[in-house]
Design brief:
Radius of gyration: 19 Å
CATH topology: UDP-N-acetylmuramoyl-L-alanine:D-glutamate ligase
Order of helices and strands: EEEHEHEEEHEHEHEHHEEEHHHE
CATH superfamily: Ribokinase
């Protein structure tokens, strides 16, 4: 079973308008809400692709209940760790010329709530399960929580993957997860240096893999596809050009599809092909709608996976 963890879940509210004009009334043509947070996105993608997962998340207040109702409507299985404070809302303004993202402050998580989280994880997960630790850390939660959870779960044989940034990511990597999924910016911040070109990317991936004994590193590169290192073997994933409606959730879709197909026992190449298809399909949908099953299946034959 695959479990995603979202410590800083959100409601993404998209406002669609022609343009933002300073000191003038801006008319919003349409409003659309989505359940969000990287781990939540992962579980939504797995559900869309016909797989099985459980989204574990801190949720609180009216917004938390709205997110639960939206996940119910989609058929996503979730395990809520209830927080006393309200789950955050992100405001995203989509205009004809671009997108503006405003992230509102999130809840402060208490020590008691963190304890409930650990207890929930301990009760749910078993040997050979997958635990995907995704996204940012809310106030009140220690920046080493991914490292703690990784060490705790690896001891019982859980396959841990981390998709985060900055200190939670760097500390989590030190706990030797099975896999990580950075983008180029996150990998640069992890190594504290600029990376230029694919040769540099591969050297950086090897450096991280060797230093921290990480078996699988999935580097997503947007429209340029991805580079993966799995058990010491490099793969280059090339994706087709597709119409872009929103870049939100492409990396989450990649990780979701990859882990889903690996958990099903598929080959590395098949998992990477489906990951590339899911990532490409995600940008074809508006807002945080993520990928659609039919788009993923249609794109799969157009994804090239080359062993390097």
């Amino acid at each position: 079973m695959i479990f995603s963890l979202t410590l800083n879940a959100a409601l993404d509210r998209f406002l669609y308008t022609d343009a933002l004009i300073e000191d003038d009334t801006v008319r919003v043509d349409r409003v659309k809400d989505y359940p969000a947070g990287k781990g939540v996105d992962v579980s939504r993608v797995i559900n869309e692709l016909g797989g099985h997962s459980v989204a574990v998340a801190f949720l609180g207040g009216h917004t938390g209940k709205v997110i639960e109702e939206m996940l119910d409507d989609e058929g996503v299985v979730y395990a809520t760790v209830r927080s006393e404070e309200e789950t955050r809302t992100n405001i995203l303004v989509q205009t004809g010329s671009g997108q503006y993202r405003m992230s509102l402050p999130g809840p402060v998580i208490s020590v008691k709530e963190v304890y409930k989280l650990y207890k929930t994880i301990d009760v749910l997960l078993r040997k050979d399960d997958y635990l995907l630790l995704c996204g940012s850390i809310p106030e009140g939660v220690s920046s080493d929580i991914y490292a703690q959870l990784c060490s705790r779960m690896r001891k019982i044989g859980v396959n841990v993957y981390i998709d985060s940034d900055k200190e939670p990511f760097s500390k989590g990597v030190e706990a030797k997860p099975r896999g990580i999924k950075p983008n180029i910016h996150e990998l640069q911040r992890l190594l504290n240096r600029e990376l230029i070109g694919e040769i540099d990317f591969r050297k950086a991936i090897s450096e991280v893999s060797n230093k921290y004994s990480i078996e699988e590193i999935l580097l997503t590169m947007g429209a340029e596809g991805a580079i993966a290192s799995v058990s010491g073997e490099f793969y280059r994933i090339r994706v087709p050009k597709v119409p872009v409606k929103s870049g939100v959730g492409a990396g989450d879709s990649f990780l979701a599809a990859y882990c889903m197909y690996r958990e099903l026992g598929e080959t590395v190449k098949t998992a990477l092909k489906m990951a590339g298809a899911a990532s490409s399909a995600a940008v074809m949908t508006p807002g945080t709608e993520l990928c659609r099953f039919d788009d993923v299946m249609s794109l799969a034959s157009k994804i090239a996976v080359e062993a390097l």
